[in-house]
Each structure stands twice: as structure tokens, then as C-alpha cells.
Amino acid sequence: VAAYSTRSVIKMINTYSGKGRDAYELSRRIPIPRYYKETGSELSKTEQKDEFRKYLSDFIFYKTYVSRKIDNDRNGELLKATQYSVLFEHGDDLVFANKKKLSTSSFSTFTGSNSSALESITNKFKVPVWLNDEEKATIEKMLRHNESAFKAALEAREEAKTELEEENKKKILEGKKPMTLSEKLILRRVLENIGGFYWSLTNNTRGKVFVKKRFGENSKSSAFDTGSNFSLDIYKNEKGELKGEIIRKVQAMDKNYIPNYKKQGFKLIERIHQGDILEIDQSIISPTSKKGDYARNAHNPNAPAMKTFIKVDSFTEQGKNIVVFISNILKSTGSQDGWFMFSNMQKLNIRKINLSPAGLVTYRSKVIGS
To answer: Tell me: the pLDDT tens digits for 309-326?
Structure first.
């Protein structure tokens, strides 16, 4: 496409193609770009191809540009819209309690003898050991209510099914198409008949959410999920192990905010933003799609052997670890083409890279953590 993009050459290709000439004859008849106007060239056709190949290579290397944007701006989405009620708090540990209406989405499955919906909701919540007796009693009361609400829905299933069956009989007598009695339809009828709500209880930590300070002794605090990430701060703990802490933009906006690692006396080694370029071992990238490992196969000509340059797409906590999603730098827009776990970072010989607009290396850090 780059070679044969002039109108005259494209017209020539279309003309020969319209006459039924095969690909080999087209290749033989079409002149080499930059030489097709020269009738008395001293170079052979093979030499012309070599010269044109070098011209293209030099053009791509020196004149093409890499479009990339490092997201190191504190502005952006600070908080999510959903508000949570903080039921109990103990230091950085929080317990959220939200009153939710029973709906079809509250049930993963719904049969007369299946309570997996209740189990899936309650099993995600772990009763903290730091609760006092009064707080534990409050939690137990909420869990008992949840059990009663789901049990009532399950017990009302047969009655709702019978109602729908009777309505179907009437439809058939009237010559109308009957309803398909799916579990979702039966559940919808159950909820229309009994209504109800359940308590959504979740564990969280202050570092992952923004807590609105309480006003007054008896008022409850509110919490919001934080929005965009600002940076991934990398440090070493007292054992010399590489650790990371994600700083949110809402935290970066607070001039009085001190990251937890600094409170513990640890120093910042490196800061990574979304959009940064890293040099990384090709062998360690885990593809997120079976359709193709784009991140691993994309090799920048300036990268050392067995290395590749990748763009940091995003990073997020996963349990006690951090997963870093990476993108192929050849893509104009970000995407999650691969990932690696932060716990493996010290083994991966990762360096932070700065590239010029033409894709040339202008800075190459030491191996992070070395």
C-alpha cells in the first residue's frame, strides 16, 4: 500500500487487472516506484527494488511518528457515582451496608430447592474479627433477614408458577399465544407478589474508596468508589522486596495525602503512569485473548534482543497483588493485550523507557528494583 499509492500506478494496476493479467505479470510489468518515470535508469530492476526497499525503510524509521499519551494529569474522574453507607469502621477496615430491592438480578439461579443466590451474596462477606458484640449482633440480624427474604421468594415460586399456568390456559382459550414459563418469568412474578429487600454487606478498605467524613456523633459516613488511577508507586520494604501502591487521582489532588508506604518510612523507587512505555522480557507476557498475543509479538526495532516495548494500559488491585494490563504500542488506541502480576516484577528485568515522537529511545532506566 505504501509502495503503490500514487494514482498513476493504481490506475495501471486496475487496467492490467481488468485485462485479466495474473499477479506475476502485474509484478513484472509495473515499474518500481520512484523509477517509473525514468526510462534510462542505469540500475537493474533488482537493484531498483533494493534501493526502493531501503528508501521505504529509512522513511518509516526516520519520518513516522508514534502517537502516545501518558496519563499523568491529576484531572479526570475522581469518584464513581454510587454512594455506599459505611456501617462500621475500624482504622482502614470498613464494612458497607446497602439496602437493595430484590430483583431478578439478585438471583444467579432460581429453583424451588436452590438457594445459591443467597449463598453467593453472603459468602462474599467475611465478618471482621474486630467487631464488638453489639456490631456482631447487628450483622447477624441483617444476615437473618437476607435468609428470610430469599427463603420467602423460594417458597412463593410454586404459587407464582400456578398463576402463570392458569393465565396461559385463558390465553389458549382466547386463541392467544401462551407465555413461555421460564425461571426468569416465574421469578419476576414472585417478586411482583412479595416484593422485599436484602442487605448487601461488603468488606472494603479505606485505601480503595473515598470516605466522606461523618458530621455529628451519631451520623454514618458515606463512601464512594474512587475513579481513575493516577500512578503506581514502586518501593522496597524492609526485606528488600519490591512492592507497589496504587495512588488514585482523588488522592493525588489532596496536597495533604501521604501514601501508606511513606507513612511506614519507605522511599519511592519508581513511579509508573498509565501510558508509560516499559521494556520487558517478551517471554513473561500473558495474553488476555486466545486470538493473538499482540503485545508479545510486537517488537520495536530499537528494543534489545528478546525484549519488547509495551505501553501500560491500566493497573488495579487483585487481592493482595496488583495486576498490570499492557497494550501493544503500535496501536493508536489503548487496549488490554496482555498482563503481568506485580509480584513477578522483580524477576522480569523491567525498565522504564522514554521514546521520542519518532519512536527513538531517549531514556532507558536501570532495571526497576535493581
So the answer is: 888 888 988 878 899 988
CA pair distance 231, 209, nearest whole angstrom = 16
Q: What does the pLDDT read at residue 291?
A: 43
Long-range contacts formed by 3-10: CB under 8 A, 24+ apart: 3/33, 3/52, 3/56, 4/30, 4/33, 6/33, 8/36, 9/33, 9/36
pTM of the model: 0.56
Tell me the per-residue pLDDT of 182-215, one tens digit each, with 9 for 90 and over. 888 888 888 888 888 888 888 888 766 767 665 5
- 8 Å CB contact between 275 and 333: no
Cα gap 146→99, rounded to integer Å: 11
Report yes or no: 100 and 106 within 8 Å, Cβ to Cβ: yes
Grid-cell match 493497573, residue found? 315
With beta carbons less than 8 A apart as the criterion, state whether 296 and 266 touch. Answer: no
Taking only the tens place, the pLDDT of each residue in 32-68 is 666 655 555 577 777 877 887 887 777 766 666 555 6
Query: Could you write out the three-class secondary structure of the chain?
Result: CCCCCCHHHHHHHHHHHHCCCCHHHHHHHCCCCCCCCCCCCCCCHHHHHHHHHHHHHHHHHHHCCCCCCCECCCCCCCEEEEEEEEEEEECCEEEEEEEEECCHHHCCCCCCCCCHHHHHHHCCCCCCCCCCHHHHHHHHHHHHHHHHHHHHHHHCHHHHHHHHHHHHHHHHHCCCCCCCCCHHHHHHHHHHHHCCEEEEEEEEEHHHEEEECCCCCCCCCEEEEECCEEEEEEEECCCCCEEEEEEEHHHHCCCCCCCHHHHCCCCEEEEECECCEEEEEHHHCEECCCCCCHHHHCCCCCCCCCEEEEEEEEEEEECCEEEEEEEECCCCCCCCCEEEEHHHHHHCCCEEEEECCCCCEEEECCCCCC
Paired strand residues for 280: 308
Average pLDDT over residues 300-316: 79
Residue 238 in grid coordinates: 524492609
Q: Which of 135-139, 315-319, 361-365 has the highest mean pLDDT?
A: 135-139
